[in-house]
Amino acid sequence: MKKHNFNAGPSILSQYAIEETAKGVLDLNNSGLSILEISHRSKEFTAINDEASSLLRELLDVPQGYSILFLQGGASMQFCMVPYNLLNKKASYLDTGTWASKAIKEAKLFGEVVVVASSKDSNYNFIPKDYKIPADSDYFHITTNNTIFGTELKKDLDVSVPLVADASSDIMSRPMDVSKYALIYGGSQKNIGPSGTTFVIVRDDILGKVERPIPSMLKYSTHIAEQSLYNTPSCVALYSAMLNMRWLKNEGGVKAAYKRNIEKAELLYNEIERNKLFKSTIPNEEDRSIMNVVFIMNDDYKDKEEEFLKFAQGQGIVGIKGHRSVGGFRASIYNAMPLSSVQVLVNAMKDFEAKL
Ligand SMILES: *Cc1c(COP(=O)(O)O)cnc(C)c1O
Predict the structure, then answer these.
(1) Most buried in the list 69, 150, 346, 351, measured by CB within 10 Å?
(2) Peptide bond into 10 cis (omega under 30)
(3) What's residue 1's pLDDT?
């Protein structure tokens, strides 16, 4: 039986991407070759690489003057690649969670880092809004969605320095004004495709300004010049990601996905509010993520956590155990998650309450 997959990443993909990848593993578009064994320089793979990049451009309405890259090393590699390429003297960061703080740690290897605000003292349960960004920052780095804590910065900020975003877990979940960003990056394994490929959207004119030498593999301009084929890419991962983006386009693109995502998130948050067993960990509603819904057991029912996990498992629900730094539960409801699966989770919450 197919499970209701609420995992945070790698995570649920469209059935279309899964089935078409399986076909491509056996025989890629009647080429007589498997996607596992074709050359990344072949015309078949060049077409896949081109389609992936043009789908990303189309789905996010990426303006002229920006390059799209598919790299390896995950979002974690970008934590160092961003400052390597962009930080001359000083960069500013907003500390909204584990991933943000990891990005900060790497940036400190390259220059002065100003943490303009942090919600660490309250276990990252809100997005700080009141802060000043030093005008001489080479860039300002944010994490748009905090996958572990379940908070999300849902609007595109207007700031006076180049804006850099780790959008690993909410990319393509809502329409985004890419023109407000100098660089957007993320691992693909949350909302775009399987693990193994990392997307980067970079405004060309912010590059080439740092004085340090940069190793070729870690230099954005190397990969821009080679359309992400400077070295061997993760062919299968990119193929699946392309297929999944094709699926998203056929489903009406990011705008339509956003509507569905709001509906799914509302269904789940409303049940968390209504159900006496559960509560949200994020007090401010506007900070609540529409991708990763984090909730815990109310104080009187703390001892029922394991029992609920088991009960949910019995309904085919997997991946809702919360991250160890928060506890409780986390339901990741990325683009490919149907409303019907969220309804199954909501029903399990109701049924569990009724049987207590
Ligand atoms: C998952 C995640 C990362 C880490 O991604 P890797 O591809 O595993 O390096 C970084 N930032 C955010 C917001 C994430 O959700």
Answers:
(1) 150
(2) yes
(3) 80
